[in-house]
Amino acid sequence: MPLYVPVPGILAGTPRRLKVWPTKDLDPELFRCETFFGRHKIKISYIPTRTCIKTAGRMSAAGLVISRVNQRMRGLRFDQNGFHPNTDMHKACRTDPAFLCLDSILSQQTFHIHFIPRSMDSPLLVWAITLGLINHLLLHKFEPASANIPFLLLAFEPAALLAFVVGGPFSTARLGCSYAVFLGSLGLSIVAYRLSPLHPLAQYPGPAIGKVTKLWGLWKASHGYKYLYHKELHDRYGPYVRTGEQIREDITRTPLTLKGLPSGPNEISVIDAPAVSQILNSGGLEKGRYYEGGRHSAMLPSIVCMSGEAHTAKRRVWNRAMTSAAIREYEPLVVKRASQLVSRLREQNGIVDLVSWLDLFALDLMGNLAFGGGFEMLRDGKDVDGVGERMRGFMKVSNLSGQLPWIINTLHLLPHVGRTIQEFNDFGQNLAIQRMQNGASDEAGLEKEKPTMEMSAADGIIAVIAASDTAASTLSSLVWFLLSNPKYYRRVQQELDNMFVEGDDIFDVNKYQELYFLSACMSVYFCPILCSSVHLYPETRHCVCTPLCPPTVPDKFTSAKPAETLPEAVVRTNLDSSPRGRASTRPRTRCTAAPTTSSRTPDQFIPDRWFPNAKFERHDTAAFIPFSLGPANCIGQKFAKRELFMVLSALFKSFEMRFADGFDAEAWPLGMQDFFVVTRGPLRVTLTPRKNESCV
Ligand code: HEM
């Protein structure tokens, strides 16, 4: 009985077989066998390498003759011993089915015949393709919340297919091929669907790659310049762009709403002010899983990861800490740290890196507020414990994990990701423990239940992240902007000099409301990444849904459109998919508002546009939402504004500033990378103490 060993032939479709006889004791499962041609022993081993039937050993000398070559094996030439002169016989096997018959041996030598068996046959091909399509259907219908189970299923399915449906031989090559075909079919059908008019978001323009995979968004985010990419997209495609990232989503998961889901990169980035307001305000969309990117499994969810009732309850706690009365209580701390900043800057005597000093200031301040102290960076002149570095590392990991929300749990299993999150979690817990040991977790006794250490850690970490980087980047960006625009710089200085004369307290908060021009500058450039400041530079929180509509945007985007005239899917997305009970036709469509995007139109710093009587026709103040909108807006905005006024007043009153000689000021904003927190390069400024410094 002949032994049939399949040779490579996925493409040709017709089964090829290498026919060897006489045969006995061959184990087709093993593909490694010994047999005898008469007295002559032959070892046949299957080696699943790439290409060909290889002759090895002294096959030629052994005198193996391949005869009775199938007639259909056109074009093959054999030498006198019956060997093809080109040992790569794979080509021949691919181009034509063949039966290579070994039927005689001329000497008594042992030799090996290595060949690749055919790894894919028609039934396997058909089944693997079908399985791929079925998997797409299921994933589409029941989009998994975690990738672990789908990964396991995907890993075992082709093997199970071979074992139970198609049958052996169970070789590595066959297994590999079934995986390739299975994944190819799954991948192709996903791509085809996402690009097809059948996709619920098909009406939205956007780059094909963004429609096909979130990995594109991840790639862009990994470089920290996604905010610029968003701007490009909106410049090109308009106010609604289908992208590959997610921010807010309807996480309703009732069977009803699972019907007709858009699957895959089902995100649209929106810069249309009315739509953005619908998304963010009450009744809009809940936060997406992006925010869980950095959540440690052993850690309580922080306010930023929460939604619904839990979020509302947590907000109440935070609100109590951010009332006007509470903020007044924090003022002495701000005064202390701002004064310390000024005196440390004076000691530097000349050129300083303002980014670094403002970071130290903001971290020290938030260390005081969140953990009752613990950092003394301004004193040391550096971040001795690497808190800022740790925070940025943590936020980078969180930000990138959050780009692929359905895979977050799996990503956390990666050593680097898991370690970074673990370390930052430990760091927060240690600070919280210290704070509790000092007996200071709810000094005011406002809470019914005394906060646990875990709660204090989760809240404290969020406070430091939410409040330090935002404030520091806003401050440094605004300084950069003013130094780049000397006429505005002079106006700010003039205003401060008029307001605070010798002997006045620069930290007299009652006077800040009359600092109109400084206020206007802050509006224009709130945080380079956050808002109006945002509108010229990256958005710290683009992922956080800072809706963006530029202070100056094309008329067609800023006209107050009634909701009914918004693109249908957006209205549906905003209203119908709310988890608050309405029927959902487009659940799990995700929306993000891309701040920098339109807010950079035009790229000009014009503080005057913020004066009440300013005549800037296309200036849509409703689009200016540096602190976001709705139930999850910035809880610390009053405090932040107070802090900014205090620090900016103190700085501009105390120093004459100019960019240091040789400093490339124009390039500075380009170094801003957005990883939810903003990485920025040194801002080298020459400081000269002013004569009328009596205020600080
Ligand atoms: C210039 C300074 C600041 C800016 C521009 C800013 C901006 C924002 C924005 C845009 C959000 C919305 C995030 C989202 O929708 O996911 C936010 C949320 C938040 N901010 Fe701020 N922020 C600043 C300072 C602060 C300060 C000083 C604190 C605390 C003392 C703070 C605490 C928070 C918290 C806790 C949230 C989460 C609120 C929630 O999820 O309910 N922020 N901030």
From TrEMBL:
Binding-site residues, heme: C634
SUPFAM superfamilies (UniProt xref): Cytochrome P450
InterPro entries noted in UniProt: Cyt_P450 (IPR001128), Cyt_P450_E_grp-I (IPR002401), Cyt_P450_sf (IPR036396), Cytochrome_P450_monoxygenase (IPR050121)
Annotated signal sequence range: none
Annotated region described as Disordered, given as residue ranges: 574-601
Pfam families: p450
Cofactor names: heme
Any one Gene Ontology molecular-function term assigned to this protein's record: heme binding
Comp. bias intervals (Low complexity): 590-601
Gene Ontology cellular-component terms listed: membrane
PANTHER family named among the record's database cross-references: CYTOCHROME P450 (PTHR24305), P450, PUTATIVE (EUROFUNG)-RELATED (PTHR24305:SF187)
Sequence similarity: Belongs to the cytochrome P450 family.
Protein name per UniProt: Cytochrome P450
